[in-house]
Amino acid sequence: MKKGFKIPHTYVIIVAVVLLAFLGTYFIPAGVYQRVQDPKTNRIIVDPDSFQYVEQAPVKFFSFEESHLFSAVHKGMEGASSIIFFIFIVGGAFAMIQGTGAIDAGIGRLALKVKDKGILIIPIMAFIFALGGSTIGMSEEIIVFVPIGIALARALGYDAIVGTSMIALGAAAGFSAGFANPFTVGVAQAIAEVPLYSGFIFRVIMFIVFLIITCWYIVSYAAKIKKDPSLSIVAELEGKNDATLNLQDLPTFTIKHLLVYLALIIGFILIIIGVKSYDWYIQELASIFLMMGIFSSIVCGISPSKSAANFVEGAKGIAFGALVVGVARAILVVMEQGQIIDTIIHNLAMGISSLPSVFAALLMYLVQIILNFFIPSGSGQAATTMPIMAPLADLVGVSRQTAVIAYQLGDGITNSIIPTSAVLMSYLAIAKIPYEKWFKWVAPWILMNIGAGAVFLIIATLINLA
């Protein structure tokens, strides 16, 4: 019996691209642009009129004396080390905060307060998780909250779709806007060499719009099935359901947990001030996240050993995304050594430079949407694509900030439908919602958000968002 096609592991896909780049150094003509300093931003950019072909410099398969194909991964890790360490530290710090129980207790208290508020529970829960998605990159973390969402929804006469989506799609809406997401926007902006968290107000507006779309979509469905439960996408699942969650068993919210939330608020205020007034970069940001994690552990009475274990567990959990940045950087290393990256950028620019810059931005968006199916890791996709997209943006009249937005929207929106997303498949398994039913239900939401994202990209291009 034949097995169905299975999407390869993300690392396999990225290594395949490294191999393609390696072969490309033998067949693609070598060429270079001159880099110059932009007097307005002091950023090193491509001089669009300086491209010239140079002598071919293919990368060796192996060599005792020179860099070769197999040393590219190590060089990639070295080149991306600051970003990799940033991801590890932030992931570990958030695990220290999660280990205090403050997040679980806060959500639990909220759930108890709104359980009698009827349909208002949907926008309230969606907003809370959207904030999580947009600030701490909440993704895998939502899995543990899905059973709570389903319990609340069923208690109010809704179904598992409503309970799952107000958690998952709320987080996805915030993740896509990512106005303070260190794992996607932070990484992409660092690679694109634009100021960290610049374009903040624009992303907050995106956040509001995506959240409104999400709340309207879920509330409309919830009202319909409340009136006629047979219209539920998972009516047969609801008929078989006998599992309940006692909300009274959720952790009690204490003054210690309140102090954790205050630490988070103060930490993000410090980050905003530091980035805006003191040109903070990822090293300073990582230190603030670490301080928040340590302070949270101390005020909640977590022992030093347990805090350290939480940090290591968090770093371990984020290792996939952190290390994929370095592996993906090997693509850039190979193309730079073979001097073909500028040739690729030149030809891409020649292909789309005759188009209005708006269409160039939308093409970038489409490329990121397609790539997200194969590289669902946000930081990995940033590391794979931004080294090409950033200089390409310089050449086609699109700001690098717009290129970052094209990436984050292409990466974030479709995470709620692509079967290669481990997070999606995990929370659907917990909710017992068949993928095909979820696909049918969530597809219109995806299309609406893709459309909204296209509008935002057009606006960003027209105003030359910096």
TrEMBL record:
The chain crosses the membrane at residues 12-33, 79-97, 118-136, 142-161, 168-191, 197-219, 258-275, 281-302, 314-335, 355-375, 387-407, 413-430, 442-463. GO terms for cellular component: plasma membrane. This is Uncharacterized membrane protein YfcC, ion transporter superfamily. Keywords: Cell membrane, Membrane, Transmembrane, Transmembrane helix. PANTHER family: ARGININE REPRESSOR, BASIC AMINO ACID ANTIPORTER YFCC-RELATED. The keyword Kinase does not apply. It is a multi-pass membrane protein. Pfam families: DcuC. It is found in: Cell membrane. InterPro entries: C4_dicarb_anaerob_car-like, DASS-Related_Transporters. The keyword Cell membrane applies.
